[in-house]
């Protein structure tokens, strides 16, 4: 299927150092040199859920781990071990709404630049209800794929999945030690 994840479930552990209960990405859907698309089901037992809603620290951690998945997959495809990264700065991060338990986060991460082990990312986090999204593939939630459409009120929606609601967006600087690729190509 076109929307099958590249990595999901426990395979994500190959890309990031986090382990339960702090894992805030459960799928990598798309990767290229310019960015990635990740997902997370917001579950009741998530440590960042309070009163049935995913909290601001959870959204920030989800974006940071999405960047870690991006870097980890880049290392993985080059045959290298993923490095640990650290949030250096959160900038222009706006939260429009707190996702609720039962919603799916779909995050579009774009690499804006990189130098001296520091990478600057922009992120857009969308959330929507889609039934059991662990088993039902869902369409891309950012317009890049052309699956997004606007309804009469101007809201973006996903065919068969209702309205795709922006939850947060912003920029984040992440420090990840650069690795040398000593392999001869």
SSE order: EEEEEHEEEEEEE
Give the % helix: 10-25%
Q: Which class in CATH terms?
A: Alpha Beta
Q: Going by CATH, what is the homologous superfamily?
A: Hotdog Thioesterase
The Rg value, from CA coordinates, equals 16 Å
DSSP, total strands: 12
- The low-confidence runs, each spanning 5 or more residues with pLDDT under 50, are 132-152, 154-162
Q: If strands are numbered along the chain, what order do they take across the biggest sheet?
A: 1-2-3-7-8-12-6
Tell me the structural class.
mainly beta
Shape: globular
Strand percentage lies at 35-45%
Q: Give the termini distance in whole angstroms.
A: 31 Å
Count of discrete alpha- or pi-helical segments spanning 4 or more residues: 1
Main sheet: strands, sense, barrel: 7 strands, antiparallel
Name the CATH architecture.
Roll
The total number of structural domains is: 1
List keywords for this structure.
mainly beta; globular; 39% strand; Thiol Ester Dehydrase, Chain A; 7-stranded antiparallel beta sheet; 185 residues; 12 strands; 12% helix; 3-stranded antiparallel beta sheet
Task: Explain what this protein looks like in three dimensions.
This protein is mostly beta strands and 185 residues long. The chain has one domain: Hotdog Thioesterase (Thiol Ester Dehydrase, Chain A), CATH 3.10.129. Helices cover 12% and strands 39% of the residues. It has one helix and twelve strands. It has one helix spanning 56-77, and strands spanning 7-8, 27-32, 35-41, 49-50, 53-54, 85-95, 104-115, 118-128, 149-150, 156-158, 162-163, 165-176. The strands form three sheets. It has a seven-stranded antiparallel β-sheet with strand order 1-2-3-7-8-12-6, covered by helices on one side. It is globular, with a radius of gyration of 16 Å. The relative contact order is 0.19. The model is unreliable at 132-152 and 154-162 (pLDDT under 50).
């Amino acid at each position: 299927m076109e929307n099958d994840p590249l990595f999901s479930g426990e395979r994500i552990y190959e890309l990031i150092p986090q382990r339960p209960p702090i894992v805030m990405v459960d799928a990598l859907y798309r990767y290229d040199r310019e960015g990635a698309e990740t997902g997370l089901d917001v579950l009741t037992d998530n440590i960042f859920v309070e009163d049935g809603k995913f909290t601001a620290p959870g959204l920030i951690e989800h974006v940071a781990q999405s960047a870690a998945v991006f870097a980890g997959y880049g290392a993985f495809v080059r045959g290298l071990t993923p490095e640990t990264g650290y949030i250096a700065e959160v900038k222009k991060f706006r939260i429009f709404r707190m996702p609720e338990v039962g919603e799916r986060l779909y995050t579009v991460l774009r690499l804006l630049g990189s130098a001296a082990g520091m990478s600057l990312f922009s992120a857009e986090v969308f959330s929507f209800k889609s039934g059991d999204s662990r088993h039902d593939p869902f369409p891309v939630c950012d317009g890049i794929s052309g699956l997004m459409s606007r309804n009469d009120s101007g809201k973006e929606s996903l065919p068969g999945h209702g309205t795709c609601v922006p939850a947060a967006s912003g920029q984040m600087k992440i420090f990840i030690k650069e690795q040398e690729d000593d392999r001869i190509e």
